[in-house]
């Protein structure tokens, strides 16, 4: 793919920016829970300068649409919209949970990933993803926000070995260790979504024409979607 996509994410404690241009990748990332607004725009400037591009030369602007911190998600989408409006760029929203699944594949080659972000309030943002042959990810469990104890009661063991991603596993380790799933390990080094993975997944959305104008870009919070759901055909 020769598309040029700039991606940014501030939905969690991590702040990251990445630019994919052909087969080149330029990225910045830093865990900075209270400094997203200070760091994100300088990161954008750095990757554009490193790539030798202006914002107007980018094809699309991708962003972590959530789930994640309410404030973090709003910061990310607000800055992304501002950049997109100014440069008249289409936008692509990418699930932060799916981005962590992609990060697990990028780092370790994992193709079955169970993602859990600590949602505070004794809940996790949850989703399971299975990598397809074309590089996209299929949802095995629909994204939701749910107490870990309810997740343990509802999920049944399957034939896959699931690898972990996200801060939820550490925050609720004792409860989530009771899941009946076959887990590949007890911990993960993929704790946060990264813009590099958001940019990668956004390439597929671009090819399929799944972009929106800046004024129609929207976040996903999941607080109004509290029920875990096994997707059809995944029994």
TrEMBL record:
SUPFAM superfamilies documented for this protein: Actin-like ATPase domain (SSF53067)
A cellular component term, taken from the record's GO annotations: cytosol
GO terms, biological process: tRNA threonylcarbamoyladenosine modification
Gene Ontology molecular-function annotations: acyltransferase activity
Compartment annotation: Cytoplasm
Transmembrane segments: none
Record-annotated Gcp-like domain positions: 30-175
Record bears the keyword Repeat: no
Family annotation (Pfam families): TsaD
NCBIfam families: T6A_YeaZ (TIGR03725)
Family to which this protein belongs: Belongs to the KAE1 / TsaD family. TsaB subfamily.
The protein's name in its UniProt record: tRNA threonylcarbamoyladenosine biosynthesis protein TsaB
Organism: Vibrio amylolyticus
